[in-house]
Amino acid sequence: MGVNYLRVSVTDACNLRCLYCNPTGCCEPVDRREVLRFEEIHRVVALLAEYGVSKVRLTGGEPLLRKDLPVLVEKLASTAGIEQVMLTTNGVLLEQMASRLKAAGLNRVNISLDSIDREGYRRITGSDLLQKVMRGVREAIRVGLVPVKINCVVLKGINESEIPALARLGKSMPVTVRFIEYCPTVRRAAAAIDYVPNNEVREIIEREHGALSQVAMGAGDGPAVYFKAPDSAGIIGFISGRSSAFCSRCNRLRLTSDGRIKPCLHSPHSYDLKELIRNGAGDRQVRSVLEQILSEKPRYTKLNSRAEEFSMCKVGG
Which of 137, 172, 187, 297 has its CA 20 to 30 A from that of 147? Predict the structure, then answer.
């Protein structure tokens, strides 16, 4: 499968401290001078568009903490070859920014939400902001950032009891609720937090909501498999990156906030485009490195034994 999707971490800063993103407290903030400027991000995206990248997702940290993010969205949305600009957010600041983002050209939004119980949310994120996030979900729907996708990471013994309630969000609102298997990238975290396989998640949902029927989504829509529950306004999805392998279908690259491209989330190394760009490299030189990255993409899988440890807050998912 060709690469047509770039995830761009615009900041490593976050206003939450989720159990699975930075569980060991090892995320030292990147020096602000090392974070890519908007014009640098735009240049990389424009060059990758020449090689078939048509979708860009802005991530973090928490991307809505990046000042004037709608300015970047507008730049990317008007770039030749870019068909979709999307955002993954924790939703805390979404209510106040959804309208501006939509006007700037943002197409749709994914919202990370692992609990709809106030105390459960506080336990996972370290903050009592659930109601603010829910207002952000409703505002995203109102302004048309659709389909709104709710991303839920199920952690054994922490929020697995909420699986039916999380699935129920798709009954009351036109959202896609996606259950994502927790894939630790730090061995110490793997020992401390366990995951719930999605086949068990599906069984729990079906006991309460009835049999799920699979629905077809657009080609290249990522690794999720989608289903419909009886009498549901929305859709339920499963991303099973730990209990199954979908590396052969991976269509994405990742650009970190400090300007490194990772051919794969679990790559043992990355390519420093920021240093290249800030040292005055012309487009021809940058294209040469991008071509090398794209040629190496098929070599990597999550099972690569050389994969390095890292915290997700540094990469943006």
Answer: 297
Q: Which two tokens stand for residue 224?
A: 């999720």
> Which backbone phi and psi does 231 adopt, to 5 degrees?
55, 35
Measured on CA atoms in the order 64, 68, 73, 79, is the torsion positive or negative? negative
* Two tokens, residue 278: 């800030």
Query: Which residue from 161, 174, 180 is spatially nearest to 225, judged by alpha carbons?
Result: 180
What pLDDT score was predicted for residue 216?
77
Give the closest residue to 75 by CA, choosing from 48, 109, 105.
105
For the chain, how big is the Rg over CA atoms in Å?
19
Pull the structure tokens for residue 234. Answer: 């929305």
- For the chain (317 residues), the mean pLDDT of every run of 10, in chain order, is 91 90 67 94 98 97 96 98 98 98 98 97 96 98 97 95 95 92 68 84 94 79 85 90 73 94 80 96 97 81 50 58
User: Among all chains, which residue has been given the structure tokens 């030292």?
Assistant: 28
Longest Cα–Cα distance of the chain, Å, equals: 59
